[in-house]
Amino acid sequence: MLNLMPPLPIIARVAALLTFVLLTSITHAQSPTDPPPPTDPPATAAALQTDAAAAQPADAIAFFESRIRPLLIAHCIDCHGPETAEGKLRLDSKQGWQRGGEQGPAIVPGDPSASLLIRLVAYRPQELKMPPEDAGGKLTDQQIADLTTWVRQGAHDPRDGDQVVTDIEAAARDHWAFRPITPPPITPPEIGPNANPIDLLIGRNLHDRGFRATEPADMPTLIRRATFDLHGLPPTFAQNQTAREDFPKLVRELLASPRYGERWGRHWLDVARYSDAKDGVLMYGDARIRPFAYTYRDYVIRAFNDDKPFDRFVHEQLAADKLSLPPDAPELAGLGLLTLGRMFDRNLHDVIDDQIDVISRGFLGLTVSCARCHDHKFDPIPTADYYSLYGVLASCIEPYDRPRIGPLTDAGKPFEDEFAAKLKQVVDQQQTHYDEVLKTARERTADYLVQAATTEPDVAETAIFFLSLIPDQLRPQVTRRWRQTIAKRAFPDDPVFGPWADLVAEISRQPMAPISPQTERWRQNGVDPRIIDGLVAANPQTVADVAKAYGQILVDAWKKAEAAADPADPAAIDADPLASLLVSRSGPVWFPKQDVANYLSRTPGDAYRGLLGELDAIAVKHPDAAARAMVLWDAEVLCDPVIFQRGDPIQRGAPVPRQFLAAVSTQPRSPFQSGSGRLELAQAIASPQNPLTARVWVNRVWMHHFGQPLVDSPSDFGLQTPRPLQHELLDFLADFLIKNGWRTKPLHELIMTSDAYRRDSRLGDDPAFREQLTADPNNTHLWRGNRQRLDFEQMRDTLLMVSGDLDPTMYGRPKVLTDESNHRRTIYAFVERQNIPAVVQTFDVATADTSTARRVTTTVPQQALFAMNSQFMLGRSRALAGRVAALASVDPVGVLYEAVYGRRPSDDERQLANEFLREGTTEQFAQALLMSNELMFID
């Protein structure tokens, strides 16, 4: 390469090089609850230490043209230019490196330590090495120093270049799901005064295909279909008397019943991966129970019964604490969506990934969590957007004292008293540990500085939880923050760490120059006199000596400031630039009190976490405790997220703002401003301008009515999902939802009063229908009804209802599903995560480990064996036979048919039944009816 670089003075070159080595040997890492590192002092010519550095952009651009552009052309553009762009990173324009590649932005202007490009060219351990060995190998020390200087200056780059648009982004612009909701035109003459627009839209497709629809189902079939759809239960005798013209009235009555929320709440709980249990290792018995999880389930049921607008439903589940609600508002329980997922053995990264997954798939129909380790392979979701959402959720904590949202009764007072006493014990213990950890960390400042200055970063420094800390071990998190502080401030113009940078450069020489000649320059640069005097007295000869000297100086300043501080004004210590490093919230020692468990060694840490576990144990022990909401709040220190390269928290890349996804943002994005950003995130998700949320929800509603969704993958509307056949219908329904105030009950009415919903599922002997069945076996054109099998909840609740055993009690703590005395609706059963009952697995119940978009339906022998042999089924048969005996009826067959099927038996059925009863018992006959397809299927 042609050398266009003028020679630098030797001292400046060494200083620049060693400054870079110091920067790139330090991991720029910040845990979600870490305080931000101190901000950089303004960059000056002295700080840059090169003859090309200057404060004016013109000079900085000249430096780019003479040093950086030739370097990029010679070593980078072949692999990261318009022709190749390996890793999706382009370095041929400013927009290219600003955008970055699969691992996020390549450069953070002003911060070499956070810039991926600088770390890669330094051939750091655990990083990719660029340029690779087979493409020229590592850059020279001078080239690396020049790149570092350029980034430190602000990475001025005059190259405009073409806007970089990936193939996925280009495809997304025309993808149907990312386009605005556009309801199809329907004119009044076309629809008529009483016609349903759903039928018009479906009819267009049927006409184009030459299909004919089946006739309306008979009323018993239609009534049964409606009651199972909205209540999950068979119709009552009175409901079965509904005339065809009164069907719309029946639908409204079903929607007004509290049974509606119990059925449709269960649908949402599948999406929300609801469970009453924890999933921690060695969590058994009562220790596995989340005692107040049920408050989220009850919140969901009430939300459906109240027809809560779906946009408000979104707001409350993501940010109820931000909605100016009363402190005891039941709506706070909506935050259970975020707090009731898996615990992942306290690995916060996995917990947040699970939260991102349930939010994105549940509300948006996007698999955002696929972008955790790299840009999404199929959708326009870069890793940077994943970590923008990560920052929102990492800025939140769960409080120990959850808000009480239920009435306090005399029976619940013992819990309140015991809990308050235990909570005080926790708070006192927390404060004691916190004071001890901070005091020890401050006193051992020298040890931390030596560790940061003389060692490579360790994996433990970026972990969220620690299992083997010993009493005298340096706390990895504090070491990491000292690394950050040095990386950000070890430049010659810094009034505290400027001498550190100079001495590290001098130490590389043999022999070292005396320290005294530098002191005058330090004084002129405004270096704190205590730093100068302490270094002169220590006369350090190694990097470790420099670190020890700094440690002693800072500890002495802290102790002196603390002794002189006014107890009434403890914040005054922050005014001392040296003492504040060990005391202030922006210093490397401080951390939020709620994180203290992660700073404790094994024995006290286990004891403290055990104490926290007792808070839940008390609630489990007191079944009459008033309901409390499983909430989260914004943390004391918000997370400023960075990209985890390849999803590895050890390899921390460029910072990203907390903001919404670019793919579904209709306006230029701006970072969230209010706290963690949860409310702004909720508002963006539930915005009428967001084309996904309304589509995703109406598609779920349609699926539960017809057994098949309009979009085959209800939680994935990404580029791999083709435009649905009934796209116009989908957009009409989404628009209808928004125009009706995001309320779901009007949507139910519209769907259930359509001809499409009321069609017969039976084809009879009509050859035309047989041909249509061959051409459209999945009924995508909606020309007939879909026969559906009862799901597990419908089956169990139906068996309880027809046998007369159903307990209609609503809300409250769950009961074990397999308890023979549990006759409540299945939605109130305890939902396990680890020891899942066999019957739950046999009948395809949704897993609580992840969001379930659509349950699978299987037919396996165990299902038939359950119907024939289970204690539950035998119990229902006995109860049903007992109802007949209690009536002392002369027509037991008729009574059984009416109880189970809601109809009278035919002559043939009666004859067969009487023949059976001559040999068998009423209980056996009752069981045969309860096992039948007529009961287990909906036509």
Overview in brief:
This protein is mainly alpha-helical and 939 residues long.
The percent range for strand residues is under 5%
What is the arithmetic mean of pLDDT? 87
Let me know the largest β-sheet.
2 strands, antiparallel
Identify low-pLDDT runs: 1-56
* Tally of strands: 6
Shape estimate: globular
Radius of gyration: 34 Å
The first-to-last residue Cα distance is 78 Å
Which range best describes the helical content: under 10%, 10-25%, 25-40%, 40-55%, 55-70% or over 70%? 40-55%
- Helix segment tally: 39
Strand order, main sheet: write it out: 1-2
Structure description:
The chain is an all-alpha fold. Among the domains are: 10-164, no CATH class; 267-403 and 636-685, no CATH class; 429-602, no CATH class; 868-938, no CATH class. It is 47% helix and 2% strand. The chain contains 39 helices and six strands. A two-stranded antiparallel ribbon has the order 1-2. Strands 3-4 form a two-stranded antiparallel ribbon. A hairpin with a 7-residue loop joins strand 3 (642-644) and strand 4. Helix 1 (10-24) packs across helix 6 and helix 12 crosses helix 13. The longest helix is centred in the middle third of the chain and has 31 residues, at 413-443. The model is unreliable at 1-56 (pLDDT under 50).
